[in-house]
Design brief:
This protein is α+β, with helices and mostly antiparallel strands. It has helices at 4-20, 92-103, 147-153, 186-190, 213-237, 244-253; strands at 53-57, 68-70, 76-79, 83-86, 116-121, 126-131, 137-140, 166-170, 180-184, 206-209. The strands form three sheets. It has a five-stranded mixed beta sheet, with helices on one face. A three-stranded antiparallel beta sheet has the order 2-1-5, with helices on one face. The two termini are 48 Å apart.
Length: 254
């Protein structure tokens, strides 16, 4: 005699065993990430690229003051009075220095930083929040994005999320170097103020919010049952689920 309940339980537990072995996190990997308090303003190190947008502040040079420029695909921005400059691959401070050298041909500027270049639209870099969050997908990287802030922007973990095993992943460009991965406990950070793992993200980092064991099991069952349900639904719509004379009568009535 076949015991249905033990078989059903085994099927439900399969995703649990699968999830248990799918994480590659290492607690020590958190040391590869930077804590927010360890850098004053990481925007100083933000490297501009197309299609980032910058705004120039220099009240003594009206030709460029308050001008907004989107970095073109060729990496340049242009001004009527001083022509084109190459901005891609430079920090805002480096762009300001190039502008200062150009504008000094027209004006005598004093002070250490007479020109201020500000990033007003971060568009060239992305990090990713995937899995069980309200709005998964790519997010714009600003240089001051933390794990908790990124999760909040992505709609926070859903009721299906395994909130104490969120994976923070820094991919490796080399096949000989293992990606850095550690686990982040959302409840501990959000409800109890534990900021010990609320690190600064870098471009290309991935936050993966896995489903709970039961949620994963339900997803697997739904994945298995859905095509069967659709097949039966089509069968009934074609008249296969009712007596032949009723089906014929329905066909005549149409």
């Amino acid at each position: 005699m076949i015991h249905v309940r033990p078989i059903t339980a085994a099927i439900l537990l399969l995703p649990a065993f699968a999830l248990t072995g799918c994480f590659s996190s290492n607690p020590r990997d958190v040391q590869a990430f930077t804590m927010p308090h360890e850098v004053d303003v990481s925007l100083n190190q933000y490297v501009l690229n197309p299609p980032d947008e910058i705004e120039i502040h220099c009240s003594r040079a009206p030709e460029i003051d308050l001008q907004r420029q989107q970095i073109r695909p060729d990496g340049k921005v242009s001004f009527e009075a001083i022509g084109e400059i190459y901005a891609a691959g430079k920090t805002p401070a480096q762009v300001a220095e190039v502008l200062r050298e150009k504008i000094m041909e027209l004006y005598k500027l004093s002070g250490d930083n007479p020109i201020d270049v500000r990033v007003v639209a971060f568009r060239s870099k992305r990090y990713y929040v995937l899995g069980q969050v309200g709005s998964p997908g790519a997010q714009v990287y600003s240089g001051r994005d933390t794990v908790l802030g990124a999760l909040a922007l992505a709609g926070s973990p859903t009721v299906l999320a395994w909130v104490d095993r969120i994976q923070i992943i820094r991919p490796s460009a080399s096949k000989n170097v293992r990606p850095k991965i550690f686990e982040f406990n959302f409840d501990r950070a959000a409800a109890h103020g534990d900021a010990s793992k609320d690190v600064l993200l870098e471009e290309g980092d991935i936050i993966y919010v896995p489903p709970t064991v039961l949620a994963a099991a339900a997803m697997k069952i739904e994945e298995f049952v859905r095509p069967i349900a659709r097949a039966f639904s089509g069968y009934y719509l074609m008249g296969g689920g009712e007596p032949a004379d009723v089906a014929r009568a329905r066909a005549v009535s149409y």
